[in-house]
Amino acid sequence: MGTVYLIHFDAPLGDTSNPRGQAQHYIGYTDNLAERIETHRRGNGAAIMAAVCRAGIGWEVVRTWAGGRDLERQLKRRKKARCLCPICQKEVECEASQGD
Fold this sequence. Notes:
Structural class: alpha+beta
């Protein structure tokens, strides 16, 4: 079993004039969290993390779950990463049943 992780960006990435054209979170999966985070810090790995690095946007891992790719896909399909994020939960209204 690996780790599913949630990254929160310090600033939105993308078209800030269009709320649907920006991202502020990334959900990923790994078998080695420390190694994967270092890969992201170097601007490698996921394309969105490379773009965050190029843009000079800070970020942090804010939540992890024990699980595999099935859990990663399940969380991504929800399209509600902000509701899983402890930083953003204070700012947005989320459904009561998050299944966490």
